[in-house]
Amino acid sequence: MTGIQAAHIMRERGRFVSLSENQVHDASLEDYIPIDLKKILPDRPVAFSLYYPVYTASKKELTFSTIAGEGEVFKREMWQFLAKRGIASVYAHKSSLTAMTTYFEELTRCCIDSSETSLEEKTQSMYRHAEFLVETIFRDPEMGHIIGDASRWAGMVGEFFQKDPVTPAYLCRMFAKDYTTFTHSIQVSLLGMAFGTHLAWGVEEISDFGVGSLLHDLGKIWIDNHILKKPGTLTQDELSHVRRHPRLGHDHLRGISAVPPRALEIVLQHHENSDGSGYPLGLVEKEIAPLARVAHIVDCYDALTTKRPYKGPLTPYRALRLMHEGMRESFDSRFFSRFIDFLGK
Ligand SMILES: [Fe+2]
Ligand SMILES: [Fe+2]
Fold first, then answer.
1. How far is the CA of 131 from the centre of ligand 1 (A)?
2. The domain 118-343 is classified under which CATH number: 1.10.3210.10, 3.40.50.300, 1.10.10.10, 3.10.520.10?
3. Strand partners, 64
4. Helix and strand counts by DSSP (H, E) for the chain
5. Is the pLDDT of residue 271 over 70?
6. Alpha carbon of 109 to ligand 1 centroid (Å)
């Protein structure tokens, strides 16, 4: 079936639904993984079937229509048809997860290795690949094997940065301006890996940092959303609740062999302060793992420079000033001054 035929059938059977907007609840949804349309390149074969949900209001029925079968080319006309209607996601069945991760890995590898691809396309490909991984892991943290894919992603990025160092200004230009746990995790990971390259770390350290920071806030999935999104000051109880996230993430990931020990330390210690005032353990600087000390700095910087419902983004200069004037005791001073140098590159 061509993409256009599929679209025709979908129009006849029901109407396209954007699930996040329409809040359609259906048990079968849990079997499908949404994929940002922008992540699928048109006019190329896709190694797994792509679907789109169609909702028939009269029957209150949600069905998944195939828009490209396994191994078929996802036609540009179909891609444009969906994009023009503001449809942001297509879906794949959970059973194709391995094929999906291989697809994104091959795309990123091809993009990085190609001499015809611009630096912008390369970094965007790495970013989109990371989005797929983070969204998949955060949606279902029981899928431990995806962590191995995240490690390979971080290894690829680490090698790329060593060959072609990107400047922080370049990276930050392509970063999302609005804070979400997903974009924040990717940005801490990419900016931190670029910083690690500046510090002349080896690929293995850079890669461990990349995985650890992709996962550093995983524990937030067990924290009440209304507290995470609360615009005002948190009560003491709410604060204690939020402060459980490093421990929750660490305890979940500890049982997964694909998580490198240094990545686990980042997850547990990224809110520890050098002066011992942090959490969950109140460690002092020499007790905090070096990669976790760096993650703490990059984590604060990204949180300050992105927009939240209750605050605008700070400029890099104001963020660094605030970190220097109000939070200096929290950070490892040597890493912090190297980070300031790095941002000035
Ligand atoms: Fe955190
Ligand atoms: Fe964070």
1. 18
2. 1.10.3210.10
3. 53
4. 16, 5
5. yes
6. 30
